[in-house]
Amino acid sequence: xxKSLYIHIPFCQRICPYCTFARQLYCQKKVDKYITLxxxxxxKKYKNNKFQTIYIGGxxxxxxxxxxxIKLLSCLTPKxxxxxxxxxECNPEFVTEQQVKILKKYKINRVxxxxxxxxxxxxxxxxxxxxxxxxQKAIDLFRKFKINxxxxxxxxxxKQQSIPxxxxxxxxxxxNKINHISYYCLEIKPKSIFSQRNYKLDENKIEKQLKFIIxxxxxxxxxxxxxxxxxxRNKNQSHHNVLVxxxxxxxxxxxxxxxxxxxxxxxxxGDILKWKLVRKKLSKKELYQQVLIMGLRLKExxxxxxxxxxxxxxxxxxxxxxxxxxxxxxxxxxCRNINLLNCLLEKII
Length: 349
Ligand SMILES: C[S@@+](CC[C@H](N)C(=O)[O-])C[C@H]1O[C@@H](n2cnc3c(N)ncnc32)[C@H](O)[C@@H]1O
Ligand code: SF4
Description:
- The structure is a single chain.
- The mean pLDDT is 96.
- By secondary structure, the chain is an alpha/beta fold.
- 36% of the residues are buried.
- The radius of gyration is 20 Å and the shape is globular.
- It folds into two domains: 4-244, pyruvate-formate lyase- activating enzyme; 297-345, no CATH class.
- The protein has 13 helices and 17 strands.
- It has a nine-stranded mixed sheet, with helices on both faces. A three-stranded antiparallel sheet has the order 12-13-14, with no helix packed on it. A three-stranded antiparallel sheet has the order 15-17-16, covered by helices on one side.
- The two termini are 30 Å apart.
- The protein binds S-adenosylmethionine and iron/sulfur cluster.
- S-adenosylmethionine binds next to strand 6 and strand 7.
- The site of iron/sulfur cluster (SF4) has 11 residues, from loops.
């Protein structure tokens, strides 16, 4: 039985220059229709399913109006199993008391807050609409309504960023007792506004920043459980993402959303209000590659008791066993140093 559901909300109030995720500018009428489509699909295809984890990602899911949020959440909450993780991605500037009340009412128990940095100059240069004050307000509101599982997304590698700025950002999170941090390296993907402006990354600086982030988070008792993810205790991990990385099946719904069911990866293509499912028929090699690319991101690696994992390992046994970065014991396979994961993956790609 599929355990996880991902819902994609591809609407934002403003487009960030580094972002190439599937998103468009918010439009009330479009969003109304879009939510109806999601609701119809759940009722038609997943009527009898219940999920352990539901993740509403974006885009900016919390830039929806209260009525739109209620319409969306009210068709998802009944889909939760008794023990569940229900996450929504939020941008700090849109968090209000009324909104958090609704999130709580509809059983959201985890939020992923897109902070990126607290530094004013960088926020301005990346066209973000929030500041330290509304980040603090958002965190306080989640706490007030007992949504204590708060994760924060940050990015390193911006031009104006320095280690003292990163330290200041992390100190703010520690002071606020945040228990999960996703710290991503800035990626300049083709078609992003930054790429069109020929934004260049300073690899040397980035390497030093990552070293500092790893050291400082460790000093502050954060465990790095995945390439870009740290948490205080295992129970604070993103269970949704861990299930996905461990190649459990998940349902994906929404324009440009991805899913994995019955050994098929799929995604939705077409117009934002007329998406159609495209099933990717992967060859055995492609499927096993995908399993390893996703799972070896995890520090603990993948469990060999899982049939798909053991098949994937056996398929690439020669390539993997020949790498000093590859570790295999009776139970699991993993990468010895996840900073060098790409060097290991090169062997199988
Ligand atoms: C797709 S966004 C959605 C959440 C929300 N709209 C936001 O911007 O915070 C999820 C996270 O991906 C990260 N992200 C987006 N574009 C990125 C890029 N080019 N490089 C690194 N991280 C990126 C950001 O940290 C962001 O919070
Ligand atoms: S980073 Fe987030 S807010 Fe910015 S455009 Fe992408 S999805 Fe929207």
